[in-house]
Amino acid sequence: MLCCTAMMDLGSELGVPPYVFYPSGANFLGFMLELQALHDEGKLGDLAELKDTESEMAIPSLEKPLPCKFLPSVVVEKEWLPLLIDNTRRLREARGIVVNTFLELETYALGSVSVAGNPPVYPVGPLLNLNSARPEEEEEEEYKEVMEWLDGQPAGSVVFLCFGSMGSFAKEQATEIAAALERAGHRFLWSLRRPSEMGITGVPGEYENFDDVLPGGFLDRTSGVGKVIGWAPQMAVLGHQSVGGFVSHCGWNSVLESIWFGVPVGAWPMYAEQQLNAFQLVEELGLAEEIKMDYRWDGGMMVTAEEIEGGIRRLMAAENDEGRKRKTVKEVSEMSKKALTEGGSSCSSLSRFIQDVIDNIS
Prior knowledge:
EC number: 2.4.1.115
Keywords: Glycosyltransferase, Transferase
Family: Belongs to the UDP-glycosyltransferase family.
Structural class: alpha/beta
Number of strands: 11
Largest sheet: 6 strands, parallel
Order of helices and strands: HEHHEEHHEHEHEHEHEHEHEHEHHH
Organism: Linum tenue
Strand content: 5-15%
Distance between the termini: 23 Å
Catalytic activity: an anthocyanidin + UDP-alpha-D-glucose + H(+) = an anthocyanidin 3-O-beta-D-glucoside + UDP
């Protein structure tokens, strides 16, 4: 794993060739390799300051220049950057890097990291826990209620709002989201969770009463078209035929899940590397619509109802880009499944990885 690069020395002592599993995409891998190179050459500026400017950065894993306002949160946090730089430097010592992506999705990014001087890169994804679509025993009742509600909705009519295991909103932002949903008029399923007192490092909790955090009368006015929940069975929801759009924090697992099920994304990143993922989805791959790509959960930013409403309308519009974007998502979805079949790109890459391990051990 990426966070365990310190174990590479132990593996070498035991005669075990060091390989690293990289759970993010090839784009973030290329981004970090570039940042580490710039840092070691003394050419990396203060990223925390750059994010508030109109500057752009040329990143080899991106075809377009990256506006600095979309720098991922994890690299503008000064306590995290040195750790990431050190880990990335150690990556270069690995015999290979196994990445949770597939060639057809990140063709350009994979080409940029597969160059002389870097370890071989093996894209073997999408690696998804499809069994997580089924709930744990204690979540069975909530799961059944959500799925029964979705069963009663027309195909492709529901926008699903869910922001990962660490995503949450306080009353002020929840009020803006509620206003946007009511004005947009689309059917919705909204996973709304309470922020932890520990901030972004704490696990969100559940609201005991949604009326305490949502505008007065909202639940009554939208009872025929919407449902607000706490915990959400994300995989099962994305796989339901009634879901036509996914407003997401753009965590890499969520990105791969949305692609697998062919659901377009409304990009609203919050922390970690998610701003970079969002930029890639919206600007490079054309698989998403922007809600607010420069949002940072701990930055005190408020996304307005107008911004959210506009993003949801674009996401859910049947005539979206004359149907091209929704069609593209479906095509990439099929590619993600084919990649894992015999002879597919990820299956073949896995075979090359296994052979390389065998050759290096022997």
